[in-house]
């Protein structure tokens, strides 16, 4: 676990920033592959990835600042954009990144729901790799395990500052692993007939459910909303319910339509050339 890979003069090259950038690049690359395989809009993926990526980083940071850590940042305004200190809420990143994607798609007359279905696996893959950045940076950590099992973070990390040398639950590691499982499930789901919009809403449902239960192990914040659950759990509940409603509606709406998504086909099995 290394927060700093090397220095250029006095400027540190941080593992967090490098891996986070890699997660965006790889997510865009997988999104390009999926869009090209589908035969639609692959020429827009790089531009869309840049806009949504920047919006996602901004959203993730602001979501964490205002919903999770305002007690601190309210008194340290100049540190709001010091992302290397840790503090990036993925739910805020997905929210603002999705908004940016919707705006881009509408501007270029792209079917928003169909594009969201195509890119859903790429988004969760980016999230999975991004959790590696959290591990290397020592944030998004878990609570003490109370046993000899767990991760002991270096003294330079936020996790060590909060809990010292106690073994902590590997919350960020398990979330990254669950994200990879969701990635595989979405690819499998897209290989069967589904209503337009169902792949994306399934992604939201699966991630929200995983995040809700993992929050019981998170130790980087503990403030409860209405004394019931954490902010991330509340967000997960709302997102899950809305996504479930959307999943049901998309399936009902497209059940008898001709534009119901067909299973993804690989190779040239059709004589009709897609444009």
Describe the protein:
By secondary structure, this protein is mainly alpha-helical. The protein has a domain of 190 residues. Helix content is 59%, strand content 5%. It is built from nine helices and four strands. The strands form two sheets. It has a two-stranded antiparallel ribbon with strand order 1-2. β3 and β4 form a beta hairpin. The longest helix is centred in the middle third of the chain and has 26 residues. It is globular and about 60 Å long. The C terminus is likely disordered.
Characteristic terms for this protein:
Lgt, 9 helices, mainly alpha, Phosphatidylglycerol--prolipoprotein diacylglyceryl transferase, two-stranded antiparallel sheet, transferase, 4 strands, 275 residues
Main sheet strand line-up: 1-2
Structure classification: mainly alpha
Count every helix, treating DSSP H or I runs of 4 or more residues as helices.
9
- What is the terminal separation in angstroms? 47 Å
| Helix percentage | 55-70%
Low-confidence stretches: 267-275
Summary of the model, kept short:
The protein has helices at residues 15-38, 45-68, 70-73, 90-107, 112-137, 158-163, 171-189, 198-214, 231-254, and strands at 4-8, 11-14, 224-225, 229-230. It is mostly helical and 275 residues long.
């Amino acid at each position: 676990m290394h927060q700093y890979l090397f220095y250029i003069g006095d400027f540190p090259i941080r593992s967090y920033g490098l891996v986070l950038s890699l997660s965006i690049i790889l997510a865009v690359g997988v999104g390009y592959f999926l869009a090209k395989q589908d035969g639609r809009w692959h020429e827009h993926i790089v531009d869309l990835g840049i806009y949504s990526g920047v919006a996602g980083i901004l959203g993730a940071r602001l979501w964490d600042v205002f919903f999770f850590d305002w007690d601190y940042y309210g008194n340290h305004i100049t540190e709001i954009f010091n992302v290397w200190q840790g503090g990036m809420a993925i739910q805020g990143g997905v929210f603002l990144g999705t908004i940016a994607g919707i705006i881009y798609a509408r501007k270029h007359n792209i079917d928003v729901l169909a594009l969201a279905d195509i890119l859903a696996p790429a988004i969760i893959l980016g999230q999975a790799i991004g959790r590696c950045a959290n591990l290397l940076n020592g944030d998004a950590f878990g609570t003490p395990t109370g046993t000899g099992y767990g991760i002991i973070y270096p003294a330079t990390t936020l996790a060590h500052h909060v809990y010292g040398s106690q073994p902590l639950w590997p919350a960020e590691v398990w979330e990254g692993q669950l994200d990879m499982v969701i990635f595989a499930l979405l690819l499998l789901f897209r290989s069967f007939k589904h209503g337009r919009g169902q792949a994306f809403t399934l992604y939201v449902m699966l991630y929200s459910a995983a995040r809700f239960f993992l929050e019981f192990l998170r130790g980087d914040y503990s403030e409860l909303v209405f004394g019931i659950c954490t902010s991330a759990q509340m967000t997960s509940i709302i997102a899950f319910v809305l996504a479930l409603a959307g999943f049901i509606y998309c399936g009902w709406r497209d059940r008898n339509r001709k534009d119901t998504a067909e299973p993804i086909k690989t190779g040239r099995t059709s004589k009709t050339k897609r444009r």
